[in-house]
Amino acid sequence: MLTQRPMRIHKNLIGYFLVTLLAGCGNGGTPEKIKDTPTSGNICISADDEYSPLTEAEISVFEGLYRKTKIRSVYTTEDSAFSLLKNDSVRLIVVGRKLLADEETYFNDKKLHPEQVKIGTDALVFIVNNSNPDTLISLDKIKLLFNGKDSLWKQVDIKSQLNKVSVVFDHENSGNSHYISQKLLQGNKFPSYCFALHSNKEVIDYVSKNVNALGIIGANWISNEYDTSVIRFRKSIKVVAISIKESANPADYYKPDPYYMQTDQYPLCRDIFIISREAYTGLGSGFLSFVTSNNGQRIVYREGLLPSRAVSHNMHF
Fold it and tell me: Which distant-in-sequence residues (6+ apart) come within 8 Å of 317 by Cβ?
């Protein structure tokens, strides 16, 4: 389990803001409660914080096209997003995995059959301080790092003069931490030098100020080359290139670009899903349809992620 650093905002205040945001959103709804259509109405959705830039971009364009719509978004941990969906507090969620078997059973028992649609592919990005010369790391070294057997920068690169690595995640129960736990730790505990903050943005800020830090964020936060905030983030840190094999050749190391995600040369990728529990064809269905359309998929591509469907080069808004 990851250590959670002290929160900058008191938990009670966060709870208040969440309740306020969800108030009036309504639930998945039955036909008797329909107040929205695919192109009109007001709903609440949730997303893993990792996908907040993508989700915000999709909502912005969708609401611009359909002026009678309002989509309120809650950005939280992966676990919390699934809880909100389960409790009928939001209509749909944007997350990095599909429903687990017990989650499917829960919905099936309620005669609900959530729609699960892949909308793109994301990558876990490793970032380091601008003063850190170590920007090439093999997947085997990463595995050793998370199994507590390789905790020094000089063990990552013998020439490094840095001290012990501090590995920092966005959230304790985020999709990023779950991915590492399941894929590299096989469910074992994180080493003591791993801890969590409360957002991808906080991870970037922490790494920019701590030379020994190794941060893990979603590609969505630093991949849109047209976004001024992304440009600013990229100037404050370095992105690590990763190789699936131990190699002294820099050409064997790849950064999390969409092309290398598609060719499997970048090893730490996962699919992005929209999961909807909408019981009728309402605004949630309209938003999902938009995200999987050519225009919606072009936004996925523009955000530096790999779309789930082939897209044309022109956007029509």
Answer: 61, 64, 65, 295
Q: Do residues 296 and 58 touch, judged by C-beta distance below 8 A?
A: yes
Domain 28-121+270-307 is classified in which CATH homologous superfamily?
Answer: Periplasmic binding protein-like II (3.40.190.10)
Query: Does 125 have pLDDT greater than 50?
Result: yes
Q: What is the number of other CB atoms lying within 10 angstroms of the CB of residue 234?
A: 17
Are 92 and 27 contacting, i.e. CB atoms less than 8 angstroms apart?
no
CA dist., res. 155 & res. 144, Å (int): 10
pLDDT classification of 303: cutoffs 50, 70, 90 = very high
29 within 8 A of 279, measured Cβ to Cβ: yes
Rounded CA separation 189/88 (Å): 32
pLDDT tens, residue by residue, 33-79: 668 999 999 999 999 999 999 999 999 999 999 999 999 999 999 99
DSSP state of 164: B
Give the 3-state DSSP-derived string for 65-109, with helices as H, strands as E and coil as C: HCCCEEEEEEEECHHHHHHHHHCCCCCEEEECCCCCHHHHHHHHH
Fold of 122-269: D-Maltodextrin-Binding Protein; domain 2 (3.40.190)
Distance CA 45, CA 81 (A): 9
Question: In whole angstroms, what is the distance from residue 277 CA to residue 317 CA?
Answer: 28
